[in-house]
C-alpha cells in the first residue's frame, strides 16, 4: 500500500503593514510534490480554511518541476484543498508544510494546526516543512507540555535571509522564535540548499532546500 502524504497550505495572500502580496512559494510545494509523486505516494492537500491557497513566485514556472506542478495534477489538487478540520489526519504517514511568507500570517498560533502536527509526530508519522513552513511547528507542545522543537535539530528561513528579503513585512523573526523555544538551529549560507533530519522531523532552510526536504521524507517513508 502506498504511503500517504498530507500537504497543509496557508490561505494567506498578503502580509505586513504594506499588504505585500504573498502565498505558498511555488518551488517549495512543487519540488517536494515531485519527489512524493515519483515515489508513488498518495498526496492530498488541506488548507486552514478550505479556500484555494494562493501561489507566489509564478515567475519561476520555467523550472521543470514547477511547470509540471502547474500543468499537471499538483496545482489542480491544491486548488481543491480540503478544510483541515474536515480531514482525518490520522491516516497520513507524513505531513508537509510548504513555505512562502503566507504561513507567517495564519500559522503561528493556529491551534488545530498545532494539534495535527503534534498528533502526527506522537503517533510516529513524519512531520516536515521548508523555509517559513516550520512556523507550523512553533508554539506546538507535546503531550508532556514541552515545546515540539525543544532539543530538536531544526532549520528554517534564517535571520540573515530575512534581513535581505522581507524584514519589514514579517511579524517576527522565525529563526529567533524557534531558538527561543529550544530548537538546535542549523544555518547554511543564505539561499544555499540545507535540509535537516532529526528522527521523524525534516526541515529545510529556503526554496533551494525544498527538493532535499522531499528526498529526506521519501527516504524515511521507504526505508
From TrEMBL:
SUPFAM superfamilies: Class I glutamine amidotransferase-like. Residues 28-218 form the DJ-1/PfpI domain. The keyword Protease applies. Keywords: Hydrolase, Lyase, Protease, Stress response. Signal peptide: none annotated. One of its GO terms (biological process) is methylglyoxal catabolic process to D-lactate via S-lactoyl-glutathione. One of its GO terms (cellular component) is cytoplasm. GO terms for molecular function: glyoxalase III activity; peptidase activity. It comes from the Bacteria. CDD domains: GATase1_Hsp31_like. InterPro entries: Class_I_gatase-like (IPR029062), DJ-1/PfpI (IPR002818), Prot/Nucl_acid_deglycase (IPR050325). Belongs to the peptidase C56 family. HSP31-like subfamily. PANTHER family: GLUTATHIONE-INDEPENDENT GLYOXALASE HSP31-RELATED, PROTEIN/NUCLEIC ACID DEGLYCASE DJ-1-RELATED. This is Putative intracellular protease/amidase.
